[in-house]
């Protein structure tokens, strides 16, 4: 079984369990990269941001066999992924995210960052922490999905990293040229 279907299925299961408890959660972070990159990158955790109340998170997670680990982490025996709940609101750098992609899973619809915001999320780590792996992940997603490049460029300038945006743009162009060969 490939990672992406397992990743999206697990994320859908978590999302559905939370929704039954009145909790709306958005999948963010590396798991979104795994889904959009079709397993080129494999995340080992599911990061969710809760919109609205988070009352019901622990109960929802327990209803599908997850137990609270350290901090905001939940773990389930036999599941290699850890589920973590990040502080709201959903944001990439200084930009609050209000629109999300919808992915159908066996458990229902999963809300997650759309490809443009997923790329921005990875670029934020590259810009602020010089994380080259995050740059590679941004390229993986951008190579496979339509993204709003002008929005990313404007956001990058607002984050104070227009030169790093150019590095991303060049890395993406190089990756696209390699893929055409």
The number of distinct structural domains comes to: 2
Number of helices: 7
| Average of per-residue pLDDT values | 94
Global geometry: globular
Main beta sheet, described? 7 strands, mixed
What series of H and E elements makes up the topology?
HEHEHEEEEEEEHHHH
**CATH first level of the largest domain:** Alpha Beta
Q: How widely separated are the two ends?
A: 29 Å
Do you know the CATH topology of the largest domain? Beta Polymerase, domain 2
How much helicity do the residues have? 40-55%
Class of secondary structure makeup = alpha+beta
Level-2 CATH architecture of the largest domain? 2-Layer Sandwich
What's the gyration radius in Å?
16 Å
Share of residues in strands:
15-25%
Question: In words, what does this structure look like?
Answer:
This protein has 181 residues and is of the alpha+beta class. It has two domains: 3-113, Beta Polymerase, domain 2, CATH 3.30.460; 116-180. It contains seven helices and nine strands; from the N terminus they run αβαβαβββββββαααα. The strands form two sheets. Strands 3-4-5-2-1-9-8 form a seven-stranded mixed sheet. Strands 6-7 form a two-stranded antiparallel ribbon. The mean pLDDT is 94.
């Amino acid at each position: 079984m490939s990672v992406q279907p397992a990743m999206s299925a697990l994320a859908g299961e978590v999302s559905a369990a939370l929704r039954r408890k009145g909790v709306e959660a958005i999948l963010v972070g590396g798991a979104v990269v795994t889904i959009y990159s079709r397993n080129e990158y494999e995340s080992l955790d599911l990061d969710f941001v809760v919109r609205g109340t988070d009352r019901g998170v622990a109960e929802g997670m327990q209803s599908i066999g997850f137990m609270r680990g350290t901090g905001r982490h939940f773990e389930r025996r036999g599941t290699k992924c850890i589920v973590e709940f990040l502080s709201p609101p959903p944001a990439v750098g200084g930009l609050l995210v209000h629109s999300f992609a919808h992915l159908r899973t066996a458990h229902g619809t999963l809300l997650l960052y759309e490809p443009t915001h997923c790329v921005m999320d990875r670029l934020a780590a590259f810009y602020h922490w010089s994380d080259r792996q995050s740059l590679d992940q941004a390229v993986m997603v951008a190579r496979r999905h339509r993204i709003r490049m002008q929005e990313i460029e404007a956001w990058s300038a607002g984050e104070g990293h227009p030169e790093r945006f150019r590095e991303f743009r060049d890395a993406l162009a190089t990756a696209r040229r390699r893929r055409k060969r």
